[in-house]
Write the structure tokens for this entry.
Amino acid sequence: MENFGVNLMLSFCGQDKCSVDTNGRLKLSPRVLTDFEEACSGNVVLHCLPEGTIAVYPEETFLLMRKSISNPAEKAAGSMVFRRSLRMFGALSQPQTITKQGRLTLPTAYRDFAELNSGAGVVVVGVEIGVEIWNADKWAEELKMINDHMMEKGMREMEGDLAAEM
């Protein structure tokens, strides 16, 4: 896609339904595999998010996220909250490689964390910088919460516009 002389490409968009096999492997869709191949040749980082899902980021993206913290050693020395943040990122992150067959092995602790039981419905959701792997029921709840929030925000915005016109 070209826009005003700049090449733009949609990456890590959409959602796919799939399942986790008994060995904890998830087969990614061809579209998602292409995105990861172009972004990182299959080297990714799994990260458990507080929402109860597993993020899968290209390794370079994950490193950029971590690099955005200026002077982490100094911050760690002076802040218990920052050290806890480092623990969360360290303990809940793991490098992984997508296999040539397009599978991603999810560690047992990560599957337990995100409630991704063998045979359970799973949704792989594009988040533009990677994907998130959701339990299908949790994803439905998250999507409803997002939609409810957007509708509520839109109503407040519209009420503000109407009040300003009077």
Observations:
- Residues 50 and 113 are 10 Å apart (CA to CA).
- Strands lie at 2-3, 6-7, 15-19, 25-27, 43-49, 53-58, 93-97, 103-105, 121-126, 131-135.
- The radius of gyration is 19 Å.
